[in-house]
Amino acid sequence: MSIPRPSISFLVVLAAAIFVALQMFVFGRWSPALFSGLFVAAQGLALALLFRLFAPAWWRHRWLRVAVWAVTLIGLGALILWWPGVPWTAWELTGMWITATVGVLQIATLIALPISGLIHGIDWGLQRLFNRSTTDETAEEKPNMARRRLLKYAAAAVPMTTIGLALGGKAQALAGITVYRRELAVPNLPPTLTGLRILHVSDLHLRHYVTVADIEPLLEQAADYRPDLVCVTGDVADDLDQLSDGLQLLSELKPPYGTYATLGNHEYFRGVRRVRQIYDRSPVPLLVNESVRVTINDSPVLIAGIDDPVRMRDLQSSFFETTIREATRERRADDTVILLSHRPDAFDVAATEAIDVTLAGHTHGGQIGFMGRSIFERRFPDRYLWGEYAKSTSRLYTSCGAGHWFPFRLGCPQEAPVIELIPS
Question: Is the pTM of this model over 0.70?
């Protein structure tokens, strides 16, 4: 009696189950590696299902089935380098990159399959329509074959295109931080502040994708623009062992009017108490619902920083009303106010308070952009995902971030803009 061979899908499920059991046994808790393993396994199974539904002719090819399962198992296998390793080692980084690449390729294919299935459906519908409407098979044969060939190529081109874009996004995540000058037109800007340059650094996420070593070339580029002020809007480090050195480097640019920072949600995730202790020992002032006033060319400038609400459910106007008013309680009538907020959601309240300039980050631009805007802009217009925004006399710039915690960017490069204020 022959023993039936287990299906590859069963082996994937079994590998994922073993991985979960080992994770929980070793660590006794949820971890990023555990989440990633479940994510990759679930997407592998979803791919098999979608291929069966939307491209059954393709799924009958053995090489395709082997490729889908092999990529999934590679993603799971790479976690062996990740989950038992010492944090931030080359082994862990390699495992994370492989797993992230597999996840991105899976997502790209999942997006493409329903579109390819729609093209197949159009081909099937047209074929039935033409079969009913003609009795002259010879007259119809050539245009019919040409149409079917065109649709076949179109269906195949969709996943090839999305996979190509996915690989492009992975490559762009390795391109490094871009520093450039951009003008921000501000109403009621005093003439003495025209040309004020602010280096805006947000979301470095110092850990393994971006490290302290990446700050040096950032500062070398920024030095060419001679910024007057450096503003850091949160999420500086996910590895707090790098935070002190990172802040020290950022301060070494020595802009004439100082370097200032505020908190992001990742500072809370990593331990805000330790973060604040590191800031207390650093040369970079941390502004949490407080402000400092500097005089620039005889014009008073109030630099205010607010706290972060940490959780999405706390993104309410009352939070920002309280924090902004507390941070600007020393405001005078002749002050030009620059507000540092990790989240751009503060802008609605900042505009009602006639804050001149708000600098924010957090969104990473959705990590996919086109022509200097997030592709998700139309879907979430009130989230201020990336770029310049205006309300009344207030202006906001949301950076798409100098770093990332997930290594994928497409049309949305890592940036640290030098923002030059000009009159509106």
Answer: yes
Name the residue ranges covered by the structural domains of the chain: 8-172, 181-423
Distance in angstroms (rounded) separating the CA atoms of residues 112 and 50: 10
Are 260 and 254 a contacting pair, CB within 8 Å?
A: no
CB burial readout 362-395, b (16+ within 10 A) else e:
bbbbbbbbeeebbbbbeeeeebbbbbbbeeeebb
Residue where the block lists tokens 């969104």: 363
CA-angle at 115, arms to 109 and 118, nearest 5°: 140
Q: Which is it for strands 197-201 and 229-233: parallel, antiparallel or unpaired?
A: parallel
Residue found under tokens 């993603």: 75
CATH class, domain 181-423, is alpha beta
Which one is predicted more confidently, 279 or 5?
Answer: 279
Q: What is the token pair recorded at 30?
A: 């949820």
5 pLDDT higher than 50: no
The listed range with the strongest mean pLDDT (121-130, 131-140, 250-259) is 250-259
User: What is the C-alpha to C-alpha distance for residues 58 and 263, in angstroms, rounded to an integer?
Assistant: 50
pLDDT per residue as tens digits for the range 54-73: 778 778 888 888 888 888 88
Confidence (pLDDT) at 295: 97
Residues 297-338 have pLDDT tens digits of: 999 999 999 999 987 665 678 899 999 999 999 999 999 999
Q: How far apart are CA 414 and CA 324, in angstroms?
A: 28
Can you tell me the distance from the alpha carbon of 319 to that of 316, in angstroms, rounded to the nearest whole number?
Answer: 6
Rounded to whole angstroms, the Cα distance separating 294 from 402 reads 26
CB 201 within 8 A of CB 247: no
Closest CA to 59 of 8, 124, 123: 8
Question: Which CA distances in Å does 252 have to 167, 220, 242, 248, 255?
Answer: 36, 11, 16, 6, 8
